[in-house]
Design a protein that fits this description.
Blueprint: H1 2-10, H2 13-26, H3 30-60, H4 64-90, H5 103-114, H6 117-134
Helix pairs in contact: 2-3, 3-6
Length: 135
């Protein structure tokens, strides 16, 4: 039961890492081995990023300041997104302005990096670049 919960929380990264190593061992040629190695390294980087994020969360969990900061950062961007969405969908004419520069360009990246999603996206981009570079 605990193993299933851990796999659900981590997205079964350990299983993916195991499959990547198996693919590397079964690879028939050098290109397949390089792709399998890149995938294995990407998954290892994701595991390390998750470990570090968990460590930071555990070390700062008792600080009320961290919880307040989290609420303010996420709340501001989420509230703005909600207002823009409601105004756009229901055409209420509120004319919610975009964030000033550079936040207007970085709004999504700020939210994603705050929640740790950007790390996974960068890893996928690196693997895709490695695969494209091999052809």
């Amino acid at each position: 039961m605990v193993g299933a919960i851990v796999r659900w929380i981590t997205g079964d990264l350990v299983g993916q890492l195991t499959r990547a190593y198996e693919a590397r061992l079964k690879a028939q040629n050098e290109t397949d081995r390089l792709v399998a190695d890149a995938l294995a390294k990407d998954i290892e980087a994701k595991l390390e990023a998750q470990r570090l994020a968990t460590q930071i969360r555990l070390e700062t969990a008792g600080f009320w300041e961290m919880r307040l900061l989290t609420f303010v950062i996420a709340g501001c961007f989420a509230f703005h997104l909600l207002l823009v969405t409601i105004d756009t969908c229901f055409r209420l004419g509120w004319r919610i302005p975009a964030y000033p520069s550079p936040f207007d360009e970085w709004q999504g990246a700020i939210l994603l990096s705050f929640f740790g999603v950007q790390v996974a996206g960068q890893g996928i981009t690196a693997v895709a670049a490695a695969i494209r570079g091999r052809k």
